[in-house]
């Protein structure tokens, strides 16, 4: 069986593109004609909003699936539309997977014991129905998680990763401005993010794939390139999900340190890709073509520094 992170790396290698497109759709990002169509069909309702999100996502996925290996839907942008939005998330994941894309569900889940097991079953694994049969509710390939409850919050996921061939990305050094308030604090002279990274190494030590990376990845932001480079050296078996490129200010040189021998990380861009048509001041009906052009520009930019 090919391990989950191996599947992602194989797609990255095949497409020569270590990037992931974030699907964090706000109604503001969605072309007016899509929203008008949704309202005509469903009224001014949560259902209409969710349908507009889904049509936008389908357009993006169709435009990106042959050049970008993965998508990363952020749960919050769907949950804000209630049950209809959550259904849109599930449909978006199914559609992306049907198009051959690797799906990182960005939920940053954080709990312990059986509660974390429930998150694992819902987002990565299978849930048992009344008659005893099992179904896959969401079907993501990987899930972002918060490790600050310690091993009690991670170990329940590891069994699902092993059984269902899935992966997780643990928050280690995040890209937001205030991340250092906690993550840079020292414990026995070492920053918290370094200790969390070491825990990722140990959590994943018995689930390493053919490229040497385990099922337990780490979220490490492009906005802190020194720490990114430092952690790459210290965490040789931990694959990185790197937010912060593009709209948050990170560039190709900032992410270069995440890679070793051409692999080791996947770099995210959300708004930069989704809103490319706005930035380029193009007709809104060209949103998908603009997203594709931006994804190609991003790929070439990053590959210029990845050896």
From TrEMBL:
Pathway membership: Pyrimidine metabolism; UMP biosynthesis via de novo pathway; UMP from orotate: step 2/2
PANTHER family named in the record: OROTIDINE 5'-PHOSPHATE DECARBOXYLASE
Organism of provenance: [Clostridium] methylpentosum DSM 5476
Keyword Lyase (UniProt): yes
Gene3D superfamilies the UniProt entry points to: Aldolase class I (3.20.20.70)
Matching HAMAP family: OMPdecase_type2 (MF_01215)
Gene Ontology biological-process annotations: 'de novo' pyrimidine nucleobase biosynthetic process; 'de novo' UMP biosynthetic process
Active site: 108
GO molecular function, one term: orotidine-5'-phosphate decarboxylase activity
Protein's gene: pyrF
Protein name as it appears in the record: Orotidine 5'-phosphate decarboxylase
Domain of life: Bacteria
Reaction catalysis annotation: orotidine 5'-phosphate + H(+) = UMP + CO2
EC number: 4.1.1.23
Residue span(s) of domain Orotidine 5'-phosphate decarboxylase: 18-285
InterPro entries noted in UniProt: Aldolase_TIM, OMPdecase_AS, OMPdecase_type-2, OMPdeCOase_dom, RibuloseP-bd_barrel
NCBIfam families: pyrF_sub2 (TIGR02127)
